[in-house]
Design a protein that fits this description.
Coagulation Factor XIII, Chain A, domain 1; 6-stranded mixed sheet; 24% helix
Length: 411
Amino acid sequence: MKPNLSQEEYIIEINHVSKDFTIYYDKSYTLKERLLFWQRNRSEVRHVLKDISIKVKKGECLGLIGQNGAGKSTMLKLLSKIMYPNSGEIVTRGRVACLIELGAGFHPDMSGRENVYTNASIFGLTKKEIDKRINDIIEFSELEEFIDNPVRTYSSGMYMRLAFSVAINVDADILLIDEILAVGDAAFQAKCFNKMKEIKASGVTIVLVSHSLGQIEQICDRSIWFKDGAIEREGSPFDVHPYYMEYMGNKISGTHENKQNDADHADKESRWGSREVEITKVELSDAAGEPKGVFKTGAPMTISIHYTNPGHITEAVFGFSIFRVDEIRCYGANTHIDRFGNGKIPLRPQGVVTCIIDHNNLVAGEYWLDTEINREDDFHYDFWKKCLKFRMYSDIGDAGIARLDHKWEIL
């Protein structure tokens, strides 16, 4: 039954909530251990949430952001009543559906169909209500072929499909989601995200925890930045996220050195070439020359490619490509395309080649950088795929891949 709320009421009220956890370092588990080792029970109280107050209106979509360990997921678990606060009060009005632990409540030896009935009943649906929805749930999950198989045979992506399909078909008033949209293939992620937009349009209140700021900016009306268990800042995503990104930018070095374990990993998965010339370090820096991993749209960015030349090659072509995290290529260039010098760089035994981007106009989001050192015929001396990840933030809500210089006129 849908809650009847006046305009003054909130569907979620969190009033001065705090949550502590006691961490035992050397705990005794039996009576004998407690008698013999009575000094063993060393513990520490960790304050995970500190005096949090939030009010959410019906139909609002709220995004929670912050570092790992900031208290975001703990807040969702308190809202879902998986755990309870040490102090303060939480009031939710209406049916709550949550996607917090992937496949939580699923029995591995039961089939997908049986788990749908079990999981939906936990959300408060009767068997008749589930019977009406079962075909829609299975169809959305795209698991018709596997629905009568035990879920222990499912991949993590299949778990997510089934869990999400159940949660969106229980007619919830409040939907709690913790990073679950990061699981699954790209097509199903897009399908889930479009479904969330439909759910929001129908008046369902959504609380979303995600490290994907672009995802939150697309769907959320408000963002709350959690830092060390407290609310650091809240407001429109486009107002809050630049401050968060600037804070995170100071924690990211923007440098990837070719240490031995990095080189071994790169050889197997993301690195190839003859290594007659070898990339030793790739660095991103700002206008002041400071290494950075986060940049503001329109600001300068410098790409520095450090190399060694053990093969005594006399010249080479240096290049880079930038890809969005969904694998869309945003830009690529090299010294041959740009006709820098004669297109090829004279090499020393070791050195650095830099590319200065005066105005990095990529819009807010996450990006990968590929770097390469080639021969003129595109033979790879060293190709380093996804050598660095960096983020862009903006105080303007433009969309797409890159900001184009433009102006408006009235004629």
